[in-house]
Amino acid sequence: xxxxxxxxxxxxxxISCRKCPRLVEYRQEVAQQKPRRFQxxxxxxxxxxxxxxxxxxxxxxxLAPAAQGGNRTGRMFTGDRSGxxxxxxxxxxxxxxxxxxDSANDGLVLKDCYITATVRCAPPQNKPLPEETEKCRPxxxxxxxxxxxxxxxxxxxxxxxxxxxxxxxxxxxxxPALKFGHGxxxxxxxxxTIIASYHPSQQNTFTGKLTRDMFHRVFExxxxxxxxxxxSEKRKRW
Length: 238
Description:
Blueprint: H1 2-15, H2 21-32, E1 51-52, E2 58-62, H3 70-73, H4 81-92, E3 113-117, H5 130-146, E4 152-155, H6 158-170, E5 185-187, E6 193-195, H7 202-205, H8 212-228
Parallel strand pairs: 2-3, 2-4, 4-6
Antiparallel strand pairs: 1-3, 5-6
Helix pairs in contact: 1-5, 4-8, 5-6
């Protein structure tokens, strides 16, 4: 209960953040120049809080909200093509209550899974600047400390992978140089595991760099790893 309340306070702090003037200006500009298909939407246009099961054993790390996706709906991966792939896979392997998500009020519930991102505001061209990532990193660090039941990290893309490693080292974990690759599994010294994945962006899915079978295999491995844990590490409800 303490962790849940602290996570809620942390997300409230995230939502009110204005550390990066370029991102503040861009997210507001997007809301004022809505495409025709979203004219009836009242855009969120604030930093996005992370969300999910506070007792999760799986932590998903994305890059940043999409301008017409999370920046519009107010929830990560909600309302865009990347989310279509992600929630379908999460539902297939028992981590989400439904296979799609169009709005923050559509009833989606994550099970044993929590979703965060390296940057909480939509950046121009989906490319946050290094200093913007650094300003956002303390939020990620606090989440890692609070989500102490996590056993599987799934970074979506090389940037998320690199930021995860940086934050794990900040925790004091002694890690060798690890090279990103889709489907690569990296057992950590403290019994946690990283399973790396390409990001389900249209750039990857439309070109065939990432197929559904490839993406599903990541979550299948995550489920297999959770099922292999010794009884003291397992969640009773599973």
